[in-house]
Amino acid sequence: MKKIVASKLPPQRVKDPKSLQTQSEYLGRVTSVFIALFIVVLGILYFSSETGQVVTTVNVSNTTIVSCNIPLISGVNHISFNCISNFQNRSEVFEKTDTSVITAMYEYRNKQADQWRVYAPNLPSYVVQDLKFLSRLKGYVIIVESGQNTLVDYDGFLSSTSSIPVFTGNNLVGYPSLIVDSLPEALTTINDTYERVRYFNGSQYIEFNATNNASQNTLKNLTPTQGYWITMPSADSWQVQSNRTN
């Protein structure tokens, strides 16, 4: 390694008071300019909103304290989390859960090249686990070892409203609500676009088909903490209320 000789180093430059004063004045002018620009921007926004030329919307959602107590039974479970945000660390949600009995957990992503994200806790540590974050808008498939069971126990918050994007084809979605809501009323905001909604109850799929008579449908309600497959002929947005009183 080449040594740096002290005598070869550039001499330290001492700033004179006049230079410091000049810098202080410059910073003061820059600060004043930024403040002036900020005031101008506020004025433009106010004027635009008054004249109707620009519409600015701020959505404020109330939140409710919610506890997720979701039993996971042997076999295939379709669940969702109404107690988490749209981007919640998986390890936080499963901190109190015995994940040793979980074979795999899947998230389905419509319109993605890699449609399945997976978390498989029993695989070796060098295996990439790409399902690191969870969302209340999503549904999840969790497979538990035969003869075993465990419990998801997590306390969090639920927004009063959730907007869930649904795309053409199949969508595995959550149900971020506190109420058991009957069908088809629960899907009012996508009544004109969805074809059917399905839920796997542990042994078989039960279904509500929009083209059937009510008596032909085996799925009657949407229930909190369950995950559902919704089939769409076109893209839309499903608006879910956490409670009817909101």
Overview of the structural elements:
The structure is a single chain. By secondary structure, the protein is an alpha+beta fold. The protein is 16% helix and 34% strand. The protein has two helices and 16 strands. The strands form six sheets. Strands 2-7-4-5 form a four-stranded antiparallel sheet, with no helix packed on it. A four-stranded antiparallel sheet has the order 10-15-12-13, with no helix packed on it. A two-stranded antiparallel sheet has the order 1-8. β12 and β13 (205-209) form a beta hairpin. The longest helix is centred in the first third of the chain and has 35 residues, at 17-51. The protein is globular and about 50 Å long. It starts with 16 loop residues before the first helix and ends in a 5-residue tail after the last strand. Mean pLDDT is 81; it is low at 1-21 and 43-60.
Number of domains: 2
Order of helices and strands, N to C?
HEEEHEEEEEEEEEEEEE
Largest sheet: spatial strand order: 2-7-4-5
Report the biggest beta sheet as strand number plus sense, adding barrel if it closes: 4 strands, antiparallel
* Low-pLDDT stretches: 1-21, 43-60
Structural class of the helix and strand makeup?
Answer: alpha+beta
What is the number of beta strands? 16
Question: How much of the polypeptide forms β-strand, as a percent range?
Answer: 25-35%
